[in-house]
Amino acid sequence: MFPEIDWTRPWYDTVRPAFDSLPAGPFIDGFNANAARLGLVNVDGQPIRFVPQADLPEGVAYEAYIGATGCVPTRENLHDFFNGLVWQTFPRIKRELNALQAAQIAQAGVGKSRGPARDAATIFDENAALLVVRTDAAGHALVDDLRAHQWRSALFDKRTMFGRDAELWLFGHALMEKLVAPRKAITAHVRVVFACDDFFALDREGRRDWIDGAVSKTIAAEGLSTAGFTPLPVLGVPGWWPDQDEAFYLDHTVFRPKRPASTTEGGHHDR
């Protein structure tokens, strides 16, 4: 099943448990078995089911269809494979993103412009990563450096914080797909999540569940804005790539200085 995926890569740690839990056979069947076992539902409580892309009626928006039926149109490709794994990993976040997108479509229709809320939801769904940081002075300093694009300070000088006081969990399925063929310029839209000491004392499954609950509640309460993201070249995460010496972070073609209107590499698509 997709032998091109190198599951030893640290950026796949987020969804590897979902992959490992898949039964033998076609992956859509496995997704549905896991969805039933996990009790996945959409915002209206309808069971999530993964269905062939051909089941999506012509002229019906992908997100609206999930919101109305609980059915997730799925193609047999890497992009949709990772999407299904994310549904099984962060089901409450996926549910809130779908609810937001479906509500926006119901309000404004599907036009040339997504609108700010739907644009933010699409970026989140496709290209986001969640940086969980200990909420202390050192954690806030790390985040300040990242938002200021002080890459050497954040990722080299403070590298020992990663794994102890900071963790990056990938979310965007397009981001995961791009990382099948890793290159230094691949950049995530990072959403920072501050957590207290109790979070870092949890086991891996407990931390995943905490993130799913905390982030989904925030989206439901506050909505989304593109202003909530900060860029991060993911191969700069300490320990995620070989030879991360000081010079690695001085490559300004990738680790760009802060600009008034900087842009990041992202991935969105229409279904």
What do these coordinates show?
The structure is a single chain. This protein is α/β, with parallel strands linked by helices and 271 residues long. The protein is 42% helix and 12% strand. The strands form two sheets. Strands 4-3-5-6 form a four-stranded mixed beta sheet. It has a two-stranded parallel ribbon with strand order 1-2. Helix 5 runs antiparallel to helix 6. The C terminus is likely disordered.
What is the CA-CA span between the terminal residues? 24 Å
Helical content band: 40-55%
The strand order across the widest sheet is 4-3-5-6
Please compute the radius of gyration using only Cα atoms. 18 Å
Q: How many helical stretches?
A: 11
Largest sheet: 4 strands, mixed
Instruction: Please report which band the strand proportion falls in: under 5%, 5-15%, 15-25%, 25-35%, 35-45% or over 45%.
Output: 5-15%
Decide which structural class fits the backbone.
Answer: alpha/beta
SSE arrangement, N to C: HHEHEHHHEHHEHEHHE
Principal-axis shape = globular
Q: Total strand count, please?
A: 6
Contiguous runs where pLDDT drops below 50 for at least 5 residues: 262-271
Mean pLDDT: 93
